[in-house]
Amino acid sequence: MTGNRGKKCLLILAGLGALAILPYLPGLALPFISDDYLQVHLAREYGPVSGWSALAGDALYRARATSLVFTYWTERAFGFSPFPFNLSSLFLHLLNTWLFYLLSRKLGLAPPASFFAAGFFAVHEGHQEAVLWYAAVHDLLVFLFVAATLLAWLRYCTTLRRRDYALAFGCYVLALLSKESAVAVAPVLVLLAPQPRRAWRAALPFAAAAVVYFGLAWAGRGSHQHFNDGTFSLLAPFWITLRNGIGRLLWIWGVLALAALCFWRSEGAGRTLRIAAVWMVVFLLPYSFLTYMPRIPSRHTYLASAGLAWIVACAMMALWSRLKTVRWPVYVAGALIVLHNCGWIWIRKQAQYRERAEPTEALVELARGSDPIRVECFPYGEGIARLAVEMRVGQSAAPILWNAKHPVFTRACLSVERDLKILGSTRPPGDSSP
């Protein structure tokens, strides 16, 4: 019996692994995109142990510490080329899919429901930017450590062992060192605990860590880029951005799932739906104070999309329970979900990411020549342009004459003395949303 259970578990993990890899296989061939160069540059500076003291003093990037260390060791192990970085992002997504399945099981979802949830999370196109754009690797890492925190926490709630509590708190610290959205974990700990009224005392140290973390960021706001470049403001109309973020997250499969649940009135899904609703709001809220757009970029929805996956899983289980003798509609619905999400990434998103890489790729190719290059405007700014040339071509690069005349967020072009012009993107760097 134990052997059969182990084989079944391995089959489930293998199936989820295949679903996690399938949408992103073509993405392994993508070149570096804009801030990927900055990510590697900062990792070289802050990633080694000798750079940790300087990293601790950087108000912004100490909240990305795990991603910088991860990037540093990826380059040390595999060298500077896009493929190993893209592969490492895909590997993290695979681990997150498995952890999400285990978390769903730990929360009491049956194996089929947990599989539906993790399978949808694996292929969901709405958070694809976190996987396809290496510079967003911190979104993958914060999910990894948040999931590990919750798994250890739920184990502690059952065993009350100090080592489980210590493991949960240690994973939470790593989550805080991955991205700011980890501060939202504290209320989720109480929500997910089997006995919430008793769990709040044990969750107080986590809440205290979150308060200290935010306090340090606030104290360093004078040198914190996001407090000074218009990216973030506590006075932003967060309720509008949050509303738009939830709407975009639910479209289209979340809306269909909720409509199906309203029609079928599924019994036993109430607790899961409540957890999903709170989860989405809590983990989207930190990004609702952005000021440069009235919506949340897709990469920032990676953690919140777990809530969407639970909603879709509830709808799939409702369909499953009503078709006890005929299962093919469930399989058809699952196939449609996979085909829609994978197809959208393959056909639509892949082209967008290649388009985003074109300006730097073109500049690098021009820099391999001997003629001076005059750059009059560039969609990602002078810093990214110079980093791309320096890191890809090195000392043999052609001289660059910089003459930026246009803001970063407008339609931009790259022009050279040979009258070659390459159009960039109208979207702000870092947002692939149409």
Q: Which outline best applies? A: globular
Tally of structural domains: 2
Total DSSP helices: 18
Give the termini separation: 51 Å
In what range is the share of β-strand residues? under 5%
Describe this protein with a few key phrases.
434 residues, 4 strands, globular, single chain, two-stranded antiparallel sheet, disordered C terminus, mainly alpha
What does this structure look like?
The chain is mostly helical and 434 residues long. It has two domains: 12-352, no CATH class; 353-423, no CATH class. Helices cover 64% and strands 3% of the residues. The chain contains 18 helices and four strands. The strands form two sheets. A two-stranded parallel ribbon has the order 1-2. Strands 3-4 form a two-stranded antiparallel sheet. The longest helix is centred in the last third of the chain and has 40 residues, at 328-367. The radius of gyration is 23 Å and the shape is globular.
SSE arrangement:
Layout (H helix, E strand, L loop, with lengths): L1 H20 L14 H11 L5 H5 L8 H14 L3 H25 L4 H13 L5 H4 L4 H23 L2 H15 L8 H8 L3 H24 L5 H4 L9 H13 L2 H12 L5 H15 L20 H18 L5 H40 L5 E3 L5 H12 L7 E3 L10 E3 L5 E3 L11
Parallel strand pairs: 1-2
Antiparallel strand pairs: 3-4
Helix pairs in contact: 1-5, 1-6, 2-4, 5-6, 5-8, 6-16, 8-9, 9-11, 10-11, 10-15, 14-16, 15-16, 17-18
